[in-house]
Amino acid sequence: MIATRAKGLRYNVLGRQHILSVLRGGRRHVGGGDAARAKAWKTEEAGGMEQNLPLPLCKVDEKRSSVRLGALVRAYNELRGAIAGELSSSPSFKRDDHAPNEENLCTELSWLFEDSVCLDPAELRRLLRSGGNECRSVEGEDEGRVIRSRLTLNEFQDVWHLRLRERLPIQYILGMASWYDLELRVGPGVLIPRPETEVLLDLALGALGEERGLGSHPWLDLGTGTGALAIGLARHSEGACGSRVRVEAIEASENAAAYASENIERYGLQDGVRLFRGSWFEPLEAEERHRKAFGGIVSNPPYITDEEMIGLQDEVRLHEPRSALFGGATRGMDGLLHIVEESPKYLVPGGFLGLETGGPIQATHLGSLMRGQAWDRVEVKPDLQGVPRFLVARTRK
Ligand SMILES: C[S@@+](CC[C@H](N)C(=O)[O-])C[C@H]1O[C@@H](n2cnc3c(N)ncnc32)[C@H](O)[C@@H]1O
């Protein structure tokens, strides 16, 4: 059961397609003050970790340092060659059955270099590796060629040390995560959005496509984190139902809300997504106009149980915020139960509820609670691995 549930919150080594375009496209400056932000990371985002590295990478000027290509390739080869040894000798990797494997880490190392070095990624990949996976050396004119880089050679080592020894997720090092078709700012203090949750966005968009009238009401994203679901809904609702849905996003954590705010701004959605700080429906409670007002509610609340917390991968357990993971004493369902109970007060008749759960046990339990109450069409839907994970329902008309 632990393995199944934890799958929804496995450390994500996939989903990379867009990060590079952000790092290279100059949009990283949105939000302003790279130097100040990089400095702030050391104190605020590093969550108490002692370090002096210019992180996150997406906030660092890509022309900050000069490195010689020959030395860069040697540094890459050295770090890459050491991965297998680190995996077999490090107690942290040895005791973690779900730890990233050598192939995952090699991929991440090449991301780190691609994101740091001011060279066309295809050219860099060619320089770092010949046809297969063997390492290359650079000779002749290329050896001494000076290129610009965000990191110095020593910093590559230090950052990679953080990845391997501290198990710091690569997304926190880069400062970006790729999710659905979005590139979202992330860092310690906010959950890295998972590929599984993309299915929840598709389910919500499917409901909008099926009943286009739901798009004429605002939608709600509870526990928005980076803003992933709220931004996805705002951007894709028009394609699904012909009108752009307004979204209200609620988040309890101040840190996470700051990332959501930055991401909403990066996508120019300040008018389409309104962010509230508070616990679940609490920011809406005071105003009567919110009652029976929402066309749909989506949420991926914390759902990990106490026992499962210990079995999580180190990347998740040590670095992602506990408040985004731990679902409380009711077998991880504190948030889920509250949302199921309160949602009918806020949804229009026929309104959609879509929830991510910890897996079959939670989904089945919640589904049976909902059947026969204020709900119709209660269904459990599978995630990308086929694990029953999402609960969808409509309020009775
Ligand atoms: C599993 S994360 C999901 C984040 C984001 N929706 C996603 O899918 O990537 C759960 C989020 O709920 C937030 N949260 C936890 N308790 C909350 C509460 N009582 N009210 C509002 N948000 C809460 C956490 O801070 C965290 O950002």
UniProtKB/TrEMBL annotation:
Claim: Secreted is one of the keywords in the record: no
Highest taxon in the source lineage: Eukaryota
Domain Methyltransferase small intervals: 219-308
InterPro entries: DNA_methylase_N6_adenine_CS (IPR002052), HemK-like (IPR004556), RF_glutamine_MTase_cyano (IPR052663), SAM-dependent_MTases_sf (IPR029063), Small_mtfrase_dom (IPR007848)
A GO molecular function held by the record: protein methyltransferase activity
Keywords: Methyltransferase, S-adenosyl-L-methionine, Transferase
Name of this chain's protein: S-adenosyl-L-methionine-dependent methyltransferase
